[in-house]
Amino acid sequence: MLNAIWETEGLQTVGIVVLVFASIKLLHLLGLISFSEDSVEDELELSAVRHRPEGLEQLEAQTRFSRKELQILYRGFKNECPSGVVNEDTFKDIYSQFFPQGDASTYAHFLFNAFDTDHNGSVSFEDFVMGLSILLRGTVQEKLNWAFNLYDINKDGYITKEEMLDIMKAIYDMMGKCTYPVLKEETPRQHVEVFFQKMDKNKDGVVTIDEFIDCCQNDENIMRSMHLFENVL
Amino acid sequence: MATGVAAWLPFARAAAIGWMPVANCPMPIAPRDNSKKQDELIILNVSGRRFQTWRTTLDRYPDTLLGSSEKDFFYNEETKEYFFDRDPDAFRSILNFYRTGKLHYPRHECISAYDEELTFFGIIPEIIGDCCYEEYKDRKRENLERLQDDQEENMDLKMPNMNFRETMWRAFENPHTSTMALVFYYVTGFFIAVSVITNVVETVPCGATANQKDMPCGERYTVAFFCMDTACVMIFTVEYLLRLFAAPSRYRFMRSVMSIIDVVAILPYYIGLVMTNNEDVSGAFVTLRVFRVFRIFKFSRHSQGLRILGYTLKSCASELGFLLFSLTMAIIIFATVMFYAEKGSSSSKFTSIPASFWYTIVTMTTLGYGDMVPKTIAGKIFGSICSLSGVLVIALPVPVIVSNFSRIYHQNQRADKRRAQKKARLTRIRIAKSGSANAFLQSKRNGLLNELLELTGTEEDEQKLTQKSISLLESQHHHLLHCLEKTTAHEFVDEQIYEQNCLETALQTYPSRSPSVSSHDSSTRTCCSRKRKRNVPLPNTSLPTTHSTHQGPLQELSAIHIQCGDPLSHTASRSNLNLKTDESSRINCKSGRITTAIISLPTPPALTPDGDGLHRPPQRRPPQPPSHPPPLSIQTTTSSAGANIVKVSAL
């Protein structure tokens, strides 16, 4: 007898509690009540980042491009990125379009870090143009320096085998699956071994900048290929 | 490779230096860029509006007109720019495509005009960006539907030679095409109504006889109802068989919804005939009679609104499905809750969850019969939540269905309106166009008349006739047509005259009246009326045979002077033009206007040249607003000399 009453009463209580909670949730959903104070911030959206580069004269002075070349470069740059800066995702996007068969995102990530010299997460036009200036108009020394910087992921002045392996894997990723001969798992590793054999003179397991530059300057192939892209622009 | 990022290619190539130290083998030689010219500005002059862009921008898409050497065809040496005689507004979006790599569809632009521009510039419409693609596709679909509608209409109209079967099918599908079809349409409609009413009245209690209780009318007047039913079913059967016979594709017809409805409507009767003896299955037989109600669906052939409703429901199938699904979910949830809430209360009607379904449905649809009501507080709370949510759940998908219905309905209305306007539109267009067709024929008359008038020496006429100066283009065109005539040894005739020729060969006609009536001296009004009657059907065919005889044409060349009184009000109905009334004669006579009409007689070889041609009753006269130039077969030139004289020359 009592049980029956309690059953009913219990269910009624449960019902009322559920009802109360549901109505509170509904009001919250409708925006009439707000629980936390920081919900207001959601309304403020981060305005788009915009960046204007330094003047043409300054860039001319800092890089080895002529005015006309800078103009052409900037027009292309601004066309793709109207906001004036490239963030990593856009960069990856653009770079991946040149390598449709493979996955260029890892390498693009390393490239991005190499270009983003001030490490603020975005490549502005100055960074872009400085990088290009080195790559296209720089001395061999500068180019090799740049390459070393690219390989040295943590920027500590040494290229370890792991860093090189990462870079190598990224490069091989760009090839994709359909290659001839078929890409095997240990191909990047073997390539790294070859590289280290060539570069690591004192066999201490890391390659320093001097070892790197020395070795490259003694290698004919590398020297020749450094001049390959000189007439790109 | 996406050409939009072509600007970044130098960067990608430069970044390749990063691979060099790692590479073991020598690199291939880079291609030399021999065309070292500076990036130059190109001027594109589109109908006077100048657009300028870099050459490299255009070179991004080499398979389009602007990106390839095809644009050299449009290069203007003197102004050193590329000139396109196209719409500058549409060109904006095309040029923006080169600049940004995305093609947008401007909403205010007409879809066919835009398509044409795209085709001209060699851009495929599929690359329209996602932002505009949906809109583009929608408009394109609407346009296509409209074109299909028009095509269907055209197909309906032309088909002069159909065999019996096709005629019948057409009569079935469009009852307005012939009287028989209309009669048939109404008869079947009537019988459907009769059948439905019979079914309904059959069950009404008819009044008790002395010893028995109330019987439904069906059982009381069995014979009468049976006869009625038989009659209706016979008509339906005949109709079905006729349709089956006339259908172009019998298999497809049998699968169509309407035919299935037809079959289902008449089948119970036949099954009933077969099964009357067997008492066991009479229960099933009674159930079958329910299917007789399907006869009411046969009305959908008679009502467009019903068809649209059916089509809407079909096209909203997914929304209906969603509605059903969400309702089912809600019903189950609430039924369960109500059952458990009411479990405790004594004498509760909520005996099981399925029993609670009934309560939930009735509450959610806000019917509220009241045969099941919750008694506990929890039950009442949940019951109220149930009814509130019911309103919401039902109200949500309904607007989608409604908007679908509205769209289809309006589309249909627009199609009907278009069809109604089409006739008038086409006629107006035809009148405007036939000016050019008849210009050729008229110029021929002009040429001939000039010769003849030289003979007769009436200067005045000559002046009037040569007033109309023909442009070089026209004269070249006429020469071309003339050459064709000479090549094929046939001549161009007016459409009306052609049809009348056809008609004539079918029916040998009127008593011929001698053309002497048409001689130039008759100038009475009745003459005018007759002449008008004659003038209109008289085609602008030439008379190759009569050229040889001088007298013939001369005699037939009669300049008829017609006195026109006060211009009649334009209220004379067009259909009366066929009658020999004086009023009809005045329709084209306006005070203060001289019209020189050139008309020539037809010469169907089978008929005497003069007689019958004159009295062919005009089968069709194009609607002529009186202020417009006179009917097709009469070319007129107005001149201001004189007053109230209509000069009609019949050749």
UniProtKB/TrEMBL annotation, chain A:
GO MF annotations in UniProt: calcium ion binding; potassium channel activity; potassium channel regulator activity
Domain EF-hand: 103-138, 139-174, 187-222
Transmembrane segments: 12-35
GO CC entries: peroxisome; voltage-gated potassium channel complex
CDD domains: EFh
Main location: membrane
PANTHER family: CALCIUM BINDING PROTEINS (PTHR23055), KV CHANNEL-INTERACTING PROTEIN 4 (PTHR23055:SF30)
Family named by the database record: Belongs to the recoverin family.
Protein name (Swiss-Prot/TrEMBL): Kv channel-interacting protein 4
Gene: KCNIP4
